[in-house]
Amino acid sequence: MIDWSRVAELRSEVGEDGFAEVAALFLEETDEVVARLRAGEVTQLPRDLHFLKGSALNLGFRDLALRCQEGERMCNAGASGAVDLATLIRLYIDSKAAFSNGLARHSAA
C-alpha cells in the first residue's frame, strides 16, 4: 500500500523538517480533493485524479497512485462515470492510516 522506500527517499531528499512539511501539505491538499469527490463534485474528475496520482507518487502512496491512474485512463476514454469513487476514497483513507501508523512505528524505533 505504501512504498516505504519512496518515503525514505523523500525524507533523505528534503530532510526531516522538510519531510514533515511536505507530508502535512500533501495530506491537507489531498484531504480537500477527497472531500470534493466525497461530496460528489466530479466536474474536474480527470484533473483531480491526476493531482491525486502525482501527490500519491511523491509521498509513496503506491496503491492510491495506481487506482488514480486507472481512473484517469477511464476518464480519458470517456468512461468517467465508471470510476469507482467509493473504493478510491476508501483506499485514500486506508493509505493515510497506514502511512501515519508506519511513521509512528518508524519514529518509535
From TrEMBL:
Keywords attached to this entry: Phosphoprotein, Two-component regulatory system
Entries under SUPFAM superfamilies matching the protein: Histidine-containing phosphotransfer domain, HPT domain
Cross-referenced CDD domains: HPT (cd00088)
HPt domain ranges (all copies): 11-106
List of residues that carry Phosphohistidine: 50
One Pfam family matching this protein: Hpt
Transmembrane segments: none
Highest taxon of source: Bacteria
Name this protein carries in UniProt: Nickel transporter
Organism name: Gemmobacter nanjingensis
